[in-house]
Amino acid sequence: MKKYLLTLSVLSLALVGCSKKDDSATFVDKTKAAANTAVEKTKEVARDVADKTKEVAKDVKNAVSDKLTEWKLTPSDIGRDLEKGGRVVRNKTVAAGEKVASVADNARIVTVINAKLVGDSELSALKINVDADAGVVTLEGTAQSPAAIGKAILLTLETDGVTQVISLLTVK
Fold it and tell me: 87, 153 in Cβ contact below 8 A?
């Protein structure tokens, strides 16, 4: 929408600048010049938007990477846990004032986590069963890699009401 307003504004200015007495440039020449200016401005705005989008994507990727490291969910961390006992357990501290999850909260937690898993392209094709009981979530099924297990645990830990995640996910 802004692109069109900019183009119309530039064209309007070109038309105002045209007069019958002005022999130095024709109406068509001024219109072409105005259109070229509008196109260049639009390209500049598009480049700026693309740059900002790349910057935000990089920031999000770094934030996820930081969380994976903070919660010891890197592929090497997951691999060590699986070798030790075949399961990965992570706890999240409960903030003051948070209540213990009820049956309705458990259903909400399961629904939210399932939606997150389906919404993630790496995890959506996997069959991961999610169960919640009083904020303790158990994940069962298979994953393609330790990194996928870490990502599933991260998405689960970042769900309101979750206090602990027990992952029984295995690498297929």
Answer: no
